[in-house]
Amino acid sequence: MSTARTAERALYAVSDLHSAIPANRDLVDGIRPSTDDDWLVVAGDVAEHADEITASLGLLARRFARVVWVPGNHELWSTPGDPVQLRGEARYRQLVELCRELGVLTPEDPYAVWDGPGGPVTVAPLFVLYDYTFRPPGAATQQEALDAAYAAGIVCNDEFVLHPDPYPTRGDWCRARVAYTEGRLAAAADPAKPLLMVNHFPLTRHPTEVLWHPEFAQWCGTELTADWHRRFPTEAVVYGHLHIPRTTWQDGVRFEEVSLGYPRERRDGLRRPIPRRIVPAETADAEQARRVAAR
Ligand SMILES: [Fe+2]
Ligand SMILES: [Fe+2]
């Protein structure tokens, strides 16, 4: 970051570092706080192999006062050559343990409260996966949606390497995570400390409507979380996965896609600087928030 170190402390976010790719590794090496008290939220898809994931998170944890991580689909892949050959829930739990050794907060830890500028905000790392309910037009069932994806040649690698064990399906794992997470959010809901919800996958379908291939949306979230930003007092929602960095608004709530993504997606340069400042919001966002609030 080029920000002067005289800046006030802030909470930043980034996702989809895919740090095993050399060009991305260089950009991850360049992520530095502006002050000694900055926090960094890492919204999934750090890498695939456990050693690469912990190397990148460890680097960031040494630089930022606090790092908060949620898993992306790539962390959950079981692939050849990975020293950690666990699948599904066991793989996730192993990653949680590795994060704890680094001092990195996960969706299994108590929610931390950011009490710096723009706060207090309750930082809620979530892991709720997807359940194939973001179906493309014309697909009435999960099978029809999957058939459409195969016909279009747009099938997520998760179908082959993201195993849901011990759950029968990824949808079952998702529904279990939704139930667990709803309880945590309800217990933490406090208008005096609104939530910064962080999930790798978008919590609403809206951000997927600009996907080049609508068949891909079925691997991007669940309708079960569509009203969470209205049900719980929410400062903002941070997500990634789509590799479409942007800020959108729904029901007066700010949604921030904070991905770095793949080198081929930024042939014209970085689409937005990383990491993105979330609390306090970037100036333009704060102005937009005032306009929304005034309506
Ligand atoms: Fe990604
Ligand atoms: Fe992803």
Brief rundown of the structure:
The protein has helices spanning 22-29, 50-63, 88-102, 142-152, 158-161, 170-188, 228-231, 283-294, and strands spanning 11-14, 39-42, 66-69, 112-114, 121-125, 195-198, 234-239, 246-250, 253-257, 276-279. It has 295 residues and is α/β, with parallel strands linked by helices.
Can you give a write-up of this model?
This protein has one domain: Metallo-dependent phosphatases (Purple Acid Phosphatase, chain A, domain 2), CATH 3.60.21. The model has no long low-confidence stretch (mean pLDDT 94). The chain is built from eight helices and ten strands. α2 (50-63) runs parallel beside α3. By secondary structure, the protein is α/β, with parallel strands linked by helices. Helices cover 29% and strands 15% of the residues. β8 and β9 form a beta hairpin. The protein is globular, with a radius of gyration of 18 Å. The strands form two sheets. A six-stranded mixed β-sheet has the order 4-5-6-7-9-8, with no helix packed on it. Strands 3-2-1-10 form a four-stranded mixed β-sheet, with helices on one face. The protein binds fe (ii) ion (2 copies). One fe (ii) ion (FE2) binds at residues 16, 18, 45, 72, 241, 243. Residues 16, 18, 45, 72, 241, 243 line the site of one fe (ii) ion.
